[in-house]
Structure to design on (607 residues):
């Protein structure tokens, strides 16, 4: 596991972050641009030196200002996938892949070249030079190169940010399979909620250089303050659900969660598969009575936990639906007219459900890599 | 065809020029790379001074450089005396002096070309290599140096061409001794000082021009090959 508490002054900006992550799975470092995410992983890798603090991975101290420990970056055995790939232009793809691998003593190599090349689908690229690769191919090679050093922790700094949507689709599934395939914990930096919902188990929320929240993804996202690191329109909750059934006639999939059932657009997943769904606060309405004649299909009872102070005439209401946290955003006039108050049992009306395409994270078996996507 | 054949004097001057330039460039290349790295990558007190010192031969009259070398490496000079007394090596008035003069005069050009190229190397690539487990020395040898190879080549060719044309510092420091320090430019100068030496001078001019052109063409071809390697 990663245990970190660091402070570093960068110009007028101070990074002062402390958090711990589990020994397995994907931990997302999430926050707006400039919130200090990359600075934190640079300190973990050794690319930047904290002014003070401590960094330990699996109990091994990499940096400790009090004890005077600062392990050289080439001896930290931490893989780093950069946003811009950073493949060596004067080497073939094959030479890039083995550059770090050959520096690891054979006894410590737990990840083999064939396994990585096969998984990432880059056999046909080995003789090429990086200049001839597409953005998606470059990132896959960069991931493979870092993996082949058999690192004890893999850092990924917005590895998809420089790619267009199609290329993202090429790379994301590979990243999703890594924790299962190679049992390497990953710290994934991103400001894309979509990527994080698909990949992460644990979420560390960064704001102005600080880790303001850390924990299981559902808990952290469900408890986000309205004026937090998310854009106002993105605030909401994340539910862990299970595929219960399909309604082929209506092209629907029924998902079960702690508070009831959700009907969503048909998904190609077997019953029992785990799916994460995101409910935006602005997509949830509240009714005192269950609506009898309405187009709302997803309605379930919930108890009001609290009302937040109105912002520009909007009130965020935190709900508890059978243990699942929900957040609804309604006008302050409606809240007053309905006399909403904590403890009241109401009905949550879900207008739409933002699905994460496919199910991800530790809850699921990894999806198979897609067939060769390029000739 | 006889007009194309080189005379013994010409062959001697050409061979000496090539030998002097080769050793001037080869001997100063490691130091040139080190200085380029220092100037491109390190901040230290006195950097401006070091930079200025390296560039001095570019702006000083060559005779001054030659004289400073003469005073330094002469039998009584601080370096020359030590070399003579400890190793029995004499520098002045030998081809080694010509090589040193050429190296010093060409050094700023070599350092400049390598330094510019080194400043253009993406530091991110070096960082990536470090995270992959490479020590700083290994990073330098496997990433930095191959990436600055075109710059090194440019520096070497420039320095070689400059060495071939070196005159002022050489004649001051190494003197004009046939077969020992009389390189092409010195032979040309000598020919112009002899009555009726115009034809000989003209032939030496042509040889110098052909040699310079060959160096330029060779560097261009090599540079293209290197670029091709980088682009895949």
């Amino acid at each position: 596991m990663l245990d970190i508490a660091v402070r570093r002054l960068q110009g007028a900006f101070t990074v002062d972050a402390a958090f711990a992550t589990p020994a397995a799975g994907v931990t997302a470092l999430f926050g707006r641009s400039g919130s200090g995410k990359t600075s934190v992983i640079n300190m973990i890798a050794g690319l930047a030196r904290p002014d003070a603090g401590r960094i330990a991975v699996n109990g091994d101290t990499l940096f400790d200002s009090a004890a005077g420990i600062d392990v050289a970056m080439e001896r930290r055995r931490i893989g780093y996938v950069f946003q811009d790939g950073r493949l060596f232009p004067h080497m073939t793809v094959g030479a890039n892949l083995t550059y770090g691998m050959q520096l690891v003593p054979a006894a410590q190599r737990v990840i083999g070249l064939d396994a990585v090349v096969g998984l990432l689908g880059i056999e046909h690229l080995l003789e090429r030079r990086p200049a001839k690769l597409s953005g998606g191919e470059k990132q896959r090679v960069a991931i493979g190169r870092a993996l082949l050093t058999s690192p004890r922790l893999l850092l990924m700094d917005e590895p998809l940010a420089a790619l267009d949507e199609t290329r993202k689709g090429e790379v994301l599934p590979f990243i999703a399979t890594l924790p299962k395939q190679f049992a390497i914990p990953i710290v994934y930096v991103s400001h894309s909620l979509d990527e994080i919902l698909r990949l992460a188990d644990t979420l560390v929320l960064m704001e102005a250089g600080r880790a303001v929240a850390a924990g299981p993804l559902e808990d952290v996202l469900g408890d986000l303050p309205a004026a937090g690191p998310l854009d106002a329109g993105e605030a909401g909750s994340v539910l862990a659900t299970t595929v219960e059934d399909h309604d082929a006639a209506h092209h629907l999939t029924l998902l079960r969660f702690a508070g009831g059932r959700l009907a969503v657009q048909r998904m190609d997943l077997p019953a029992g598969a785990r799916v994460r769904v995101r409910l935006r606060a602005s997509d949830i309405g509240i009714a005192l009575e269950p609506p009898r004649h309405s187009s709302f299909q997803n309605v379930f009872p919930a108890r009001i936990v609290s009302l937040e102070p109105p912002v520009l005439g909007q009130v965020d209401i935190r709900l508890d639906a059978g243990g699942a946290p929900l957040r609804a955003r309604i006008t302050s006039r409606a809240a007053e007219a309905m006399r909403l108050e904590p403890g009241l049992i109401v009905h949550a009306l879900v207008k739409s459900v933002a699905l994460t395409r496919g199910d991800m994270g530790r809850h699921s078996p990894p999806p198979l890599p897609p067939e060769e996507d390029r000739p | 065809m006889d007009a194309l054949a080189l005379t013994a004097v010409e062959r001697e001057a050409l061979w000496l020029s090539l030998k002097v330039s080769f050793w001037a460039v080869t001997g100063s290349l490691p130091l040139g790379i080190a200085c380029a790295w220092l100037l491109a990558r390190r901040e230290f007190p006195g950097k401006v001074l070091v930079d200025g010192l390296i560039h001095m031969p570019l702006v000083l009259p060559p005779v001054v450089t030659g004289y400073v070398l003469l005073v330094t490496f002469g039998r009584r000079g601080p370096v020359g005396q030590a070399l003579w007394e400890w190793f029995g090596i004499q520098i002045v008035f030998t081809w080694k002096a010509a090589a040193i003069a050429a190296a010093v005069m060409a050094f700023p050009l070599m350092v400049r070309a390598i330094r510019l190229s080194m400043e253009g190397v993406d530091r991110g690539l070096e960082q990536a290599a470090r995270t992959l487990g490479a020590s700083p020395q290994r990073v330098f040898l496997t990433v930095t140096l191959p990436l600055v190879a075109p710059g090194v080549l440019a520096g070497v060719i420039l320095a070689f061409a400059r060495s071939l044309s070196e005159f002022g510092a050489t004649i001051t420091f190494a003197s004009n001794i046939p077969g020992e320090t009389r390189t092409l430019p010195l032979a040309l100068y000598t020919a112009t000082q002899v009555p009726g030496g115009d034809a000989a001078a003209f032939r030496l001019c042509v040889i110098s021009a052909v040699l310079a052109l060959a160096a330029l063409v060779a560097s261009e071809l090599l540079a293209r090959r290197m670029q091709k390697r980088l682009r895949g």
